[in-house]
Structure formats: C-alpha cells, structure tokens
Design a protein that fits this description.
Shape: elongated
Radius of gyration: 20 Å
Oligomer: single chain
Number of helices: 11
Distance between the termini: 18 Å
Helix content: 40-55%
Order of helices and strands: HEHEHEHEEHEHEHEHEHEHEEH
C-alpha cells in the first residue's frame, strides 16, 4: 500500500470512528435519527466509496451518521462495538458482517430493544436482520467462473488440468463462501481446475499481499488464482514482484472487486478479468431504506440487489477513466 494511502487511512480511522452528520432536521420535524454504519474494516479501501456516498445521503436525509469499525476486520471487536451502540440507543444499524452465532445474538439483542438492523456487503441471513443490500454473491462467483472459462478457452487450456489456488478472507463469511460456490459451479465440467489450496487472509489487505507473494514464490507451478475479493490489489505491480513474475510466466488470475488500482494491475497483465460491485449504492441506498423503515414503516425487500460491473481487455481503458484514484476525491 502506498505511503499516501496508508496516511489517508490512518486519518480516516481516527476521524471516521464516530462521524456525526448533524445538519438539517427532517422536514416533518422529527428528531434526527442516529444510524450507525459498520463496514468490515476501516483499513480496507474498498469501503471508501460507501463512506463518501453514505455521508452524502445522511446529510440529504437529515440523520446523524456514525461510521464505526475496527481498522482490520475482527468479529469480536465488531460485536463489542454493536453492544456499545445498543447501550447508547442508536436508531438503526447497517453492518457488513460474518454469518456467525455471535452476530446472530447481538443483532437479535438490538432488534429486541427496538433498533432496526440491516446488512450490506457481508450478510448474516441467520440473524433475522431486516434486509440485506449487496450483490448476489453466488451469481458473482458464477460470473467470474464463466469469465475464467472464456479466458482458458481463448488460450486453448479448456482440457488441461490446472492447479488452482483460491484466496478468500474468512471461510466463515457467508458472502465469501457464496462466491466460491458459484465459481466452482460455473467452472465444473467446463474446465479442469484442481483446487490445491484455499488461502484465508483474515480480510486484511497487508496480510493478503504477504500471503500472495509467499504463495507464488513457493508454489510457482500454480496455474490459476481466483481472488474472492480485491485485498492484494491496492498496490502497484512493483510491490508484487513474485506475483508479477508468476503472471508474466503465464499465470492466470481473476477476481471480484473492481477499482482503479486493480484496473492498473489488469492493464499490466497481472489479472485477466475483474468483476466489481457498487459499494456506493450499498451504503447510500441501504441507509435510505433503513431510514424509511424507521420513519415511515416502509418495509424493504429482504434482499436488495446491486449490479455487477465487468472489466476485460475490451473496456479497461474506459473503466480507468471512470474509476479514479480514491486520493483525488
């Protein structure tokens, strides 16, 4: 990660832990609602678009926004933060989580105390949350699987047995597992992938880079890598020397998450196909739906889907014009 981005994230962590938007009371003269939004981690830049869009929508809706998360993803810390929000009596919680028992319990506790709870990005369907907004993660896995099949067929490798590594965040994360399931379903019978390893990076950018560099160094014979998320893609190709050599030697990589730095790696030939998700819509629309439920009793669908964006050789230059570096925002 660049020094500038690291510095930005440090300031972001300090200032955004409790960000309060206090402008404009709602037109119907209600007291401003307090909505807490919990991304998975402040240290993952993928949530910056959601932060910016959600902050803007909070101002438009006249609600107080609290943006709360650990720097690196930690389920226990996240549960503690939600417990604190319950004690303080916030009106609503919108969170990206793992689908695990601790989250089920703390969400149910919040809802029993009249706090509306919904999820974005990372879902917890077993918790009884009001709704989830995000991509259809199984379909996203299928889409990147179909894209890989196309890449392999284009290289005449559809019948070759290909040693494959999958990098994910946590196996306990429902959305990560759905992306893996969809990927495996789409590639089965179409190409011959031999899954050698599923590497967990604990949803951490720095650890993902270290694990990736170490893995391709010690496993140069691996032929395909599927990145369930874009964790290692926030650095220039020069910061991934082993991965760069691996790709130049014929390694094939595809992944989910599409942003400027990832597109640069794709243009440099280190990644063959990317699929992106609209994080800004997840945050802004998720906040709006939660507020409408609290204020007006409008019950949203249990699943609100945002679309997918594809990046390949045909449109990468256009996408680089659309997706600007976060530091210039």
């Amino acid at each position: 990660m660049s020094k500038a981005l690291t510095s930005f994230l440090a300031v972001f962590m300090l200032l955004a832990i409790v960000l309060t938007t206090t402008e404009a009371v709602a037109a119907d003269a209600q007291e401003p609602l307090t909505i807490a939004v919990l991304p998975r981690a402040l240290g993952n830049p993928i949530f910056l678009d959601a932060f910016e869009a959600t902050q803007k929508r909070a101002h438009e809706l006249g609600v107080r926004l609290e943006w709360v998360a650990p720097f690196d993803f930690d389920s226990e810390v996240q549960v503690e933060m939600i417990e604190n929000l319950i004690r303080r009596g916030v009106d609503g919680i919108l969170a990206s989580v793992n689908d695990e028992e601790a989250i089920h319990k703390v969400f149910q506790k919040a809802m029993e105390q009249g706090i509306a709870v919904a999820t974005f990005d990372g879902d917890s369907p077993g918790s009884g949350r009001l709704f989830h907004i995000g991509i259809d993660n199984y379909s996203a896995g299928e889409a990147i699987g179909h894209a890989l099949v196309g890449v392999l067929k284009g290289r005449g490798l559809e019948n070759a047995e290909l040693d494959t590594m999958i990098m994910t965040g946590f196996r306990e994360a429902f959305h990560h597992e759905e992306r893996i399931r969809g990927f495996l379903a789409a590639t089965e019978g179409q190409v011959n992938l031999k899954i050698r390893d599923i590497v967990e990076n604990e949803d951490t950018v720095e650890k993902s880079i270290i694990l990736l560099e170490d893995y391709v160094k010690h496993n140069p014979d691996i032929e395909v890598i599927y990145f369930v998320g874009g964790w290692p893609f926030y650095v220039p190709s020069e910061a991934l020397p082993n991965f760069q050599r691996w790709a130049q030697a014929g390694g094939i990589a595809v992944g989910i998450d599409l942003f400027y730095d990832a597109l640069l790696l794709q243009k440099a030939g280190l990644i063959q196909y990317l699929i992106g998700q609209d994080m800004a819509a997840m945050g802004a629309l998720g906040l709006e739906l939660l507020v409408n439920y609290i204020r007006h009793g409008e019950v949203p669908p249990a699943f609100v889907e945002v679309g997918l964006e594809h990046a390949n050789e045909s449109n990468i230059d256009r996408l680089l014009e659309i997706h600007k570096p976060w530091l210039v925002k």
